[in-house]
Design brief:
Blueprint (H helix, E strand, L loop, with lengths): L23 H7 E4 L48 E11 L4 H10 L11 H11 L6 H15 L14 E4 L6 E4 L8 H6 L2 H6 L4 H5 L2 E4 L1 H9 L25 E7 L8 E2 L6 E2 L2 H17 L4 H19 L18 H5 L5 H6 L27 H4 L3 E5 L5 H10 L7 E6 L7 E4 L6 H5 L8 E5 L17
Parallel strand pairs: 1-2
Antiparallel strand pairs: 2-6, 3-4, 4-5, 7-8, 9-12, 10-11, 10-12
Length: 470
């Protein structure tokens, strides 16, 4: 069974975290099954058993209270779910990577896929881009400089092909390449190539004379796949032996299917069936459009189905994306972005702190110099969150000084916890003008605790802004 995380045999220190695009091979390695059917349940059965190789396959996780996961054998409360995938009959654009795809197409030649930079500038930028110690700001500056120079070159220095202006189309599934925007004299030679077609249909003459090329996902996939490996550093994409991200991974050919725990089925007591999650319904729509494209239909119908496939996949990612056709029943659907972002999303709604005791939340800027295992809070919150520290010989003088500072100063202490003979634990206020220090902070009274204010370097059980602390 593939696993997302394998505990190491020896303790190790995490030096850094690197992010990269998920390739088709990565999706297949992390998945347990390939979804082949858009139906959810087996037909002709009263118990509504989930269909094998469907979107609710038991190997994706337990979906009901009385079921066990077919992969790990746990019930629905303990099983975290398992991922699946299905392949598309044709590549499609990812709505979240559209502008990245357009920028790469503006940077490379639309014939030979080489980066549009002369040899002298290419050698200079390769030296800068190959530096492994580049931070994000310098990488962004280099990327903008390479894009600005290459987008101004209209004749490829390698194959001498014309490259015009590349813009995003008005619709989702295509990018427009205006080939002869800066070479109007070459339009007549381009029109002569379609002379026979124009003679049969004269209405195509003004369309051909515009010199517009529609770059659909299949064409973009071919261009990105032909980008040589030595040009990948110029695109500021990881290119070393361990971390390699190729531009073709920006185009979708394999869709991950979420576990059943993310899109559970709810039993309907009114209709006697189940209400499926929005994600499952959108997966069904995508699979239905993909099945229609695979059928023997006309070219016009295929283009319409391809547009619908792009729209349904974009709705799966972001249901509030502009330009999407309306849903038939006008019901608001929640895509993946809506489940993560916003006040009620996974991050702000489930992972950050709430209005409860011993938690703190404030609007502050993050400190880039902090370690990944540290949490930064202001002094005002630190005076509200106390940290119990046991009295010992090594920290006796330090705790005495905190108690003398009292609860009104920082760093200070709020109270001292102590026990008398056979009695329950008591608390005495850490006031600087009292005899608490003389009576209770003695070396022989090692069972006492001082509730000091939170200070830098204190080790807490878990992060103060984490959900398990609530």
């Amino acid at each position: 069974m593939p696993s997302l995380y394998k505990p190491p045999d020896l303790p190790r220190i995490v030096e850094d975290i690197k992010f990269q695009l998920c390739s088709e091979g990565d999706l297949k390695r992390l998945s347990h099954i390939q979804v082949l059917k858009c139906l959810l349940y087996a037909e002709g059965q009263s118990n509504r058993r989930a269909l094998d190789y469907g979107l609710l396959d038991p190997r994706l996780g337990a979906n009901k209270r009385d079921e066990l996961c077919a992969t790990c054998g746990l019930d629905y409360q303990k099983c975290i779910g398992h991922w699946g995938y299905f392949d598309l009959p044709t590549p499609i654009y990812h709505v979240g990577y559209t502008w990245h795809i357009v920028k790469i197409l503006q940077t490379i030649c639309k014939t030979c896929s080489r980066v549009l930079l002369p040899e002298q500038q290419r050698a200079r930028f390769l030296i800068s881009c190959s530096n492994p110690n580049l931070d994000y700001v310098h990488k962004k500056q280099l990327r903008n400089a390479i894009h600005k120079l290459s987008s101004r070159i209209h004749v490829c220095p390698f194959c001498s092909a014309f490259n015009g202006v590349v813009t995003k189309g008005m619709s989702l599934p295509y990018v427009v390449h205006d080939i002869f925007r800066h070479a109007k004299a070459k339009v007549d030679e381009y029109v002569d190539e379609f002379a026979k077609v124009i003679t049969k249909n004269t209405e195509l003459a003004p369309v051909v004379r515009k010199g517009l090329e529609i770059i659909r996902p299949g064409k973009a996939m071919q261009l990105f796949s032909r980008i040589p490996e030595e040009d990948l550093p110029l695109l500021l994409m990881p290119f070393d032996s361990r971390w390699t991200t190729h531009p073709r991974n920006l185009i979708v050919q394999r869709v991950p299917v979420c576990p059943s725990a993310i899109g559970p089925s709810v039993v309907s007591e009114v209709r006697g069936g189940t209400n499926e999650d929005d994600l499952i319904k959108m997966y069904q729509w995508i699979l239905a459009q993909a099945a229609t494209i695979e059928e023997d239909i006309g070219e016009a119908d295929q283009i319409a189905c391809l547009d619908n496939l792009h729209a349904e996949f974009a709705r799966l990612i972001n249901s509030q994306q502009s330009g999407l056709p309306p849903v038939q029943d006008h019901k608001f659907t929640r895509g993946l972005l809506q489940r993560l972002a916003g006040k009620h999303g996974r991050f702000r709604g489930s992972l950050l702190g709430k209005r409860t005791n011993f938690t703190a939340r404030t609007v502050i800027s993050p400190d880039p110099n902090m370690r990944i295992d540290e949490v930064c809070i202001p002094v005002r919150c630190a005076k509200l969150l106390t940290y119990p520290e046991r009295v010992a010989d090594v920290n006796l003088n330090f705790l005495r000084s905190l108690v003398l500072d009292g609860p009104n100063n920082y760093p200070g202490a709020m109270f001292v916890s102590y026990k008398l003979r056979g009695e329950r634990e008591r608390q005495a206020e850490a006031s600087g003008n009292s005899d608490v220090v003389r009576r209770f902070l003695a070396p022989e009274r090692a069972h006492e605790d001082v509730a000091k204010y939170l200070q830098s370097g204190d080790i807490v059980e878990r992060h103060l802004l984490d959900r398990p602390n609530i």
